[in-house]
């Protein structure tokens, strides 16, 4: 049996993994990213989450070779971005939706990029079609809505059909229909085995889109895992006339319950089982539903109270974080890197 396995076919089969190991970025005395480690798997959509100023963009910029880490590594398919031979063919990224020259049409933007990436010009129209802005692409990007800029950014990222997609706040500025479209678009890509990493400062915004989450706060990892784990165990809330009688009947069916706000909270996700038990016990059902985790509350719990970007007296809501150390002139995070 031969042991010589060429690297590229193996990667193509297994997909390309993103690995962040002990990554730290200091801006002067301020630690924006603090010893961060996580992995992003191919064939899955991973949400990179954290409140404003948590260090998401800085991490993504280090992954894309735009900011030099103070220590640690960030690799894509085992290689640092600068070591990837044809990076645009491996990684597509959209970091800032506002980054387009306002006087240039969307189509011209893509043409220039296609040229740089050595991609045929026919790909430009194909991508514009794919992201749903073929008509708008003939207009100057300066007149684009935020949603249109997001779509153009996505088209640019996809031009060279990369294996890995890294998108900074791609849902920002999209209406509900746009978010639904984005979800379908990203699902399609992950189903092809592509590695998709998207950042967001709102868990709810991406909860139906992502398979996995990496949550950070103050530059540090708070949680990594499957989205389904965040939802926790499903329980059932059931309301009837005689809670004790139903609790007894459920105990016989091996379902434990506890009283909660005048209802029973049953340790199962099986609505039908509860309904059948109640029917057999001759008890009417007034309410029967699965409980769902309040993701906003969970996200708040994971990141609350300690947000370094919120000034005194500011409530720890999301979307309110100031970014005090951001470059005042360019607004670019990597400006001093
Ligand atoms: N070039 C820089 N110089 C100094 N501080 C910086 C620089 N770039 C980022 N920071 C600071 O690092 C912290 C992390 O910023 P970053 O933009 O990575 O956060 P984020 O999680 O992407 O936030 P947001 O959701 O607001 O985009 C912030 O406090 C920011 O002000």
From TrEMBL:
Annotated GO molecular function terms are: ATP binding; ATP hydrolysis activity
Per the record, the similarity remark reads: Belongs to the ABC transporter superfamily.
Q: Which CDD domains match?
A: ABC_BcrA_bacitracin_resist
Superkingdom of the organism of origin: Bacteria
Q: Which organism is it from?
A: Pedococcus badiiscoriae
- State the taxonomy lineage: Bacteria, Bacillati, Actinomycetota, Actinomycetes, Micrococcales
Q: Domain named ABC transporter: which ranges?
A: 18-243
| One Pfam entry name | ABC_tran
Record keywords = ATP-binding, Nucleotide-binding, Transport
From the Swiss-Prot or TrEMBL record, give the protein name.
Answer: ABC-2 type transport system ATP-binding protein
The record's section on Gene3D superfamilies has: P-loop containing nucleotide triphosphate hydrolases (3.40.50.300)
Annotated region (Disordered) at 311-337
């Amino acid at each position: 049996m031969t042991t010589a396995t060429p690297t590229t076919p193996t990667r193509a089969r297994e997909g390309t993994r993103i690995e962040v190991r002990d990554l730290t970025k200091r801006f002067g005395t301020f630690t924006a990213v603090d010893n961060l480690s996580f992995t992003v798997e191919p064939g899955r959509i991973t949400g990179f989450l954290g409140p404003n100023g948590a260090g998401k963009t800085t991490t993504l910029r280090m992954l894309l070779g735009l900011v030099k880490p103070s220590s640690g590594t960030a690799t894509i398919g085992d290689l640092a971005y600068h070591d990837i031979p044809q990076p645009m063919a491996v990684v597509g990224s959209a970091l800032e939706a506002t980054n387009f020259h306002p006087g240039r049409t969307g189509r011209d933007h893509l043409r220039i990029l296609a040229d740089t990436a050595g991609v045929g010009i026919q790909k430009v129209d194909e991508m514009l079609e794919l992201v749903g802005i073929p008509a708008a692409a003939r207009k100057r990007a300066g007149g684009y809505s935020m949603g249109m800029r997001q779509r153009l950014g996505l088209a640019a990222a996809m031009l060279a059909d990369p294996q890995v997609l890294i998108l900074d706040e791609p849902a920002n500025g999209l209406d509900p229909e746009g978010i639904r479209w984005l979800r379908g678009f990203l699902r399609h890509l992950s189903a092809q085995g592509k590695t998709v990493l998207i950042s967001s400062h709102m868990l709810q915004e991406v909860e139906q889109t992502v398979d996995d989450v990496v949550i950070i706060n103050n530059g540090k990892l708070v949680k990594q895992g499957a989205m389904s784990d965040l939802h926790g165990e499903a329980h059932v809330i059931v309301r009837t006339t005689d809670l004790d009688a139903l609790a007894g009947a459920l105990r016989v069916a091996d379902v434990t319950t506890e009283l909660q706000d005048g209802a029973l909270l049953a340790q199962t996700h099986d609505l039908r089982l509860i309904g059948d038990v109640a029917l057999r016990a001759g008890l009417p059902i007034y309410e029967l539903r699965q409980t769902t985790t309040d993701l906003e509350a969970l996200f708040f719990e994971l990141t609350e109270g300690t947000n370094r970007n919120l000034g005194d007296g500011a409530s720890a809501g999301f979307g309110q974080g100031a970014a005090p150390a951001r470059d005042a002139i360019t607004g670019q995070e990597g400006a001093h890197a």
